[in-house]
Amino acid sequence: MQSQDVAQRHAPASAAPVGVEQAEAALVEHYARLVRLAYLVLPPGPGRSRRVLTAHALAQRALPRGRKRPAVIPAQPPGREGDSGYAYLRGRVLRAALEAARPRTGLPRLSQLPPPLPLVWGLRLFPRPGGADALALDQRLSALSAPARAAYVLRGLEKLSDPDVRELLEAAGVDDPSGALASAASVPALPGLLSSPEFDPCALQARPTDLRRRHQHARAALAAAAALAVCGVLVALPGGGWGPDGAAAPVYAENPAAEAALDPGRLTRVSPTAWRTSARNDFSAWPARGPLTGDRALLRRALAVWARPGETVRVAAPPGTATGGPAGPPQLLYAGEVDNARVVLLYDGLRIARYAEPRDGTQGAALDFARVDGATRAGAGALVLSRADGNARYLIAPWVRKAARRDLTKPDAPAVPLTVTDGVTAPLASPVLRPGACTSWTVLQLTGPSGTQVSGDLGELVPAHLTAGRPGSAGELTGERLRTWAPFACSLAAERSAGVRSVNAWAYAEQPLPDGSGAGAWVCTRAETWRGDGTAALAQFRTPGGATGAVVARGTDVPACGPRDPHVLAGVLWKSAGGHWYLLAAGSPGMSSVSATGGVTASARGPLLIARATQGVRADLAGTLADGRRITGLR
Question: In angstroms, how far is CA 602 from the centroid of its own chain?
Fold first, then answer.
């Protein structure tokens, strides 16, 4: 009864004893809150599924048990909305979670054994996966001590003041509550995230456990469970080490093709000179490179994680890209240490898979995918090997003779050569990792047997091929085509992580401005995706002397600016130096007339229209082609 005595010493004199029935009602009403509190205080080490079950077990055992359960509970300070029953349960859950998080030395006493977990047969349960903010907060909290995590949660989730937090921690048996509060202050306060679904152990996702072994060893598992219930869990894997399959989940079922796909000895390895005679100019002609291509343990982990990513694996894929395991043995493209990770690149004929694990052997891995079906030489020139410290390293195709970096916003500046070692480039700035306003856009320039091509990093494994010119006859970025891109380079940020295969810029019109200050430039950029749908067409306008263009209209999954329909019409409200507002509209060559309706009514022969307007007015545009077909403007 020591915990009750401590709690009673910290209860205010005006607090009344709490009835057991009142505490039971509080448990039912606030069960989800209590489980979330326990989940956040518990250490993440045993895995999310066990952490979820332990949190539920602690909340369910918060009430006194046994035949001698008291009729009343010692007086408590008010809890949520003055609920003393909740305050009592919160104290019990907090103490139990702190006790469960405390490191053990030697054999535990019976009273120190963890509570029996709720029985879940054949499933692993875990909260919904969160975004980058939730993942970062979870990592920051895992680095704190259990008392510091408790202090952070009581502040952010329970909205308690520091004196109240200090009092609760002291009642829960924490030796240094002030130190715990100081440590908790090192993590930014994010109360909204603590209440989010990512940290809700009552809103769960389920995955199967090891189906094959469960069927084979059911009786042995029952015997082992009985033994563990008596003896406790005495054996655990050493922290920070890799098992034979790394971060992979258990095998689900036997399948000859699937088993072959997991065998490092069956990986396809292409000759370093195969590209010279190959009929295909894609990733199938890439040889295996890197100093760790003979590391069977690393390759086995990469294959196993691809087939069965476990709970600690971060999986990322563009829209429309499957993340399942390979149908058979994939092709090895690279294995080696890059920056702070060991990286493996694999190709299954349809996708590139990049596996990365920390070099220091700590747990956790990353698995990234990209679709590359139908890739040509232009689309198979390079792969992003790693991103770190604002830079990216590329693995380039074996037919590439020279690699260089250049700033797409400065077309007249020369390209800067990059050092290439065993196909791996020196790091170059990645625009997708740069914070703040866009002032430059670094791209990769590759020179091979068929000439020079430029690719841009859009946050995926395969950089997007950049071209310029009229759809159907666009070309590589050299000379004047580079100048076409310069004012509009920063618009590439709109296409990040969308599965983009290529982006073309088409300067389709120049329009004299009504105040005589020069001519505005109209450009349409079109992003094609690997999956086919999700294409994006951006109409952009730049005034004379402007450093950058502005996106004035956008269309998704439309044929505008593409080879199937090389036409476009867009408009913008523009204010002259004299303070007058105009509607400017421009269509592509071959447009015989343009008209505006709605907020502005006007028409003009030819592809250009200028009409007086007022600020904020909206107009609908339509154009007529020389063959009589009508098109509508991008919006």
Answer: 47
- Alpha carbons 142 and 145: distance in angstroms, whole number: 8
| Strands 475-476 and 519-529, bridge-based pairing | unpaired
Contact 108, 232 (CB under 8 A): yes
Q: For residue range 137-146, what is the model confidence (pLDDT) as tens digits?
A: 888 888 889 9
Give the 3-state secondary structure of residue 27: helix
Sign of CA dihedral 300, 303, 307, 311: positive
β-partners of residue 403 are 446
Q: Return d(Cα 218, Cα 163) in angstroms, integer.
A: 51
**Would you state the pLDDT for residue 198?**
75
- Sequence-distant contacts of 412-421: CB under 8 A, at least 24 apart: 415/445, 420/396
- Write the CB contacts of 342 (distance below 8 Å, at least 6 apart in sequence): 292, 298, 335, 336, 356, 357, 358, 359
Structure tokens at 166: 């200090």
Quick one: tokens of 35? Answer: 């489980």
What separation in angstroms does the CA of 452 have from each of 378, 407, 448, 477, 489?
Answer: 10, 15, 6, 8, 19
CB neighbours of residue 340 within 10 Å: 12
What tokens were used for 287? Answer: 């040889």
Distance CA 562, CA 556 (A): 12
The answer to whether the CB of 502 falls within 8 A of the CB of 467 is: yes
Distance, in Å, from the CA atom of 571 to the CA atom of 579, rounded to the nearest integer, reads 19
User: Structure tokens of 514?
Assistant: 């009504």
- Helix ranges restricted to H, 47-160: 48-60, 84-101, 132-142, 146-156
Residues 6+ away with beta carbon under 8 Å from 218:
none
Q: How far apart are the C-alpha atoms of 1 and 262, rounded to whole Å?
A: 55
Query: pLDDT at position 285, please?
Result: 96
Q: Are 36 and 56 in contact (CB under 8 A)?
A: no
How far apart are the C-alpha atoms of 412 and 489, rounded to whole Å? 14
pLDDT of residue 251: 52
Beta strands in 372-518 (DSSP E): 382-388, 391-396, 402-407, 416-417, 420-421, 424-425, 428-429, 442-448, 451-456, 464-468, 475-476, 500-512
Please report the DSSP string for 216-272 in residue order. Answer: HTHHHHHHHHHHHHHH-----PPTT---TTTTBPPP----HHHHHHT-GGG-B---T
The answer to whether 313 and 367 are in contact (CB under 8 A) is yes
Task: Tell whether pTM > 0.85.
Answer: no
DSSP 385: E
Beta-sheet pairing, 581-587 with 608-613: antiparallel
Maximum pairwise Cα distance, the chain: 95
Interatomic CA distance for residues 55 and 184, integer angstroms: 21
| b/e sequence 380-396, b meaning 16+ C-beta within 10 Å | bbbbbbbbeeeebbbbb
CA distance 585 to 580: 16
- The whole-angstrom separation of Cα 174 and Cα 162 is 15
Take residue 457 and report the two structure tokens written for it.
Answer: 């990093």
Q: Residue 7 has which token pair?
A: 């709690």
Cα separation, 363 vs 386, whole angstroms: 19
* Helix axis angle, 146-156 to 162-171, nearest 10°: 140
Residue ranges of the chain whose pLDDT lies below 70: 1-22, 45-46, 64-83, 103-124, 126, 128-132, 205-245, 248-255
The pLDDT, as a whole number, for residue 131 is 59
Q: Note the residue count of the chain.
A: 635
Distance CA 169, CA 145 (A): 13
**Structure token digits, residue 151:** 């202090």
Phi (first) and psi of residue 485, to 5 degrees? -75, -30
